């Protein structure tokens, strides 16, 4: 009997987010703590990182990198979707992507002013729920 690597329901939700390109609030318990944010596609996560870096000295350096990354994480086009259907439909996602991510620290969510994009390994998610955790 093999050990379960990640929750198949969460993996299915991630595949739906990738395919249909929508966002949903989630609360994740990870091996490192509790994270809340908007579950988004990998390409939306990369776009959000690019927006956060605009106007900073690091922007030119990362701009091309995130453009390539966003392209590689983009939702499949209709042309190659049929081709990949036979082999990729049940492919297990390896990562989960959030925007507006915050961490639970004692009795508050941080950062408070400017939440950041977050990427984590799916096999490190211990528990999850739909909706954002609130400390108020």
Task: Summarize the model shown.
The protein is an alpha+beta fold and 136 residues long.
The helix content is 25-40%
Indicate the radius of gyration in whole angstroms: 16 Å
Q: How many β-strand runs?
A: 6
Question: Which descriptor suits the 3D outline?
Answer: globular
Largest sheet: 6 strands, antiparallel
Put simply, the count of helices is 4
- Range of strand content: 25-35%
Average pLDDT level: 82
Distance between the termini: 43 Å
Order of helices and strands: HEEHHHEEEE
Low-confidence stretches: 75-79
Q: Based on helices, strands and strand pairing, what is the structural class?
A: alpha+beta
**Oligomer kind:** single chain
Report on this model:
Strand 1 and strand 2 form a beta hairpin. The protein contains 4 helices and 6 strands, in the order H-E-E-H-H-H-E-E-E-E. Strands 1, 2, 3, 4, 5 and 6 form a 6-stranded antiparallel beta sheet that branches. The chain has helices spanning 8-20, 42-53, 59-73, 78-88, and strands at 24-30, 33-40, 95-105, 108-110, 116-121, 125-130. Helix 2 (42-53) packs antiparallel against helix 3 (59-73). It is an alpha+beta fold and 136 residues long.
């Amino acid at each position: 009997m093999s050990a379960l690597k990640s929750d198949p329901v969460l993996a299915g939700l991630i595949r739906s987010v990738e395919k249909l390109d929508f966002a949903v609030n989630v609360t994740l318990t990870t091996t490192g703590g509790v994270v809340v944010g908007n579950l988004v596609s990998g390409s939306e996560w990369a776009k959000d990182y690019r927006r956060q870096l605009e106007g900073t000295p690091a922007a030119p350096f990362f701009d091309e990198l995130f453009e390539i990354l966003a392209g590689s994480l983009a939702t499949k086009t209709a042309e190659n979707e049929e081709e990949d259907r036979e082999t990729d439909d049940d492919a297990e996602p390896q990562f989960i992507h959030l925007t507006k991510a915050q961490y639970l620290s004692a009795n508050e969510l941080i950062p408070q002013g400017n939440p950041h994009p977050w990427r984590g390994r799916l096999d490190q998610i211990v528990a999850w729920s739909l909706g954002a955790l609130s400390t108020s």
